[in-house]
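Following up on my earlier thread - several people asked me to post the actual chain instead of describing it. Fair enough. Here it is, all 323 residues.
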Amino acid sequence: MILASALTQAIAVVLALAAAVAYPVGTAMQQKANLVQMRRGEAGAADATKDVLRQTMWWAGMVVGLLGFVLQGVALSFGALVLVMPILITQLVFMVPAGAWVVGGEMHAREWWGVALATVGLAVFLVSVRPESGLDSGPVRSWTIATAICGGLFLVLWIAARGSGSFRAALLGAAAGIEAGFLSGILKEATADFSFGNWALYAIAVFGIANVLVINIAIRAGRLSTAQTLIAVVSTIVSFALGLTVFRESVSMTPLIGLLAGAGLVVMGSGTWMLSRSPSLIALDTVAAAADAGKRDVDLGDENRPAEGDSPPASLAGGGAAG
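Reply from S.P.:
Thanks for posting it. Predicted structure:
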């Protein structure tokens, strides 16, 4: 029994890591398509959108992003929310090399330190709290309370973002994170029963489409890296809370374990902050903003510009995200 439990948890971890890779890779592929379009397309947002939608790379990126969602769902069928969702925050780790691939840059020492800190911090946290599965399906009463709380927090952040300038992207990113975390809880609920009578299957379609729209609004409001970081962090917190309250999942918690888990979170947070300031992610912000404006060219900055005499990345010379 213990061996079977360990095996299912190991499968959940592997699938969650695969999903964490798929999300940023899908986004990177779509931004790569945007960059190709800007190098060879005409100016104008409408024409730019039509051109990029003709590229196989953009659609492939969407498929990879959807694959990440499927992998996340399968991971949740094997493991608890409190196990799977913290692992998904490692998508920020994989986003940096994916961003470097898009802009033709390279990983720097600061980014490698960020990767190491985020990975070690996450490992310390998960080993300390030892997440355990709970209910396969949450009680209606628990879901009603969770929906009211998440919905209320989302509305507060959404309304606050309308009257905010510099903090608009952060507030929208946090709102999108609440919605994404709630969607993860619904996805976990759906894994208990795939029959047409399960309300969670229909809720996934509604909240899935809504979440894509809100995430895109958050990204367009400011830096992609800022929004993406907040979405990952807040969604992890929300889904962790849903796991503990709705699905009655459990974690080990003593003063010593709490201290170790807190230290792991601090280390992971430090690594995540370092990664969010990566030149590759800043360059991705530039690509996203330029693509949204329908620009034909984009300045990626000195750190991400090929050295004089070097050939540009193949995608910049010729043919050719689900966040």
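The chain has 13 helices and no strands. That should answer part of your original question.
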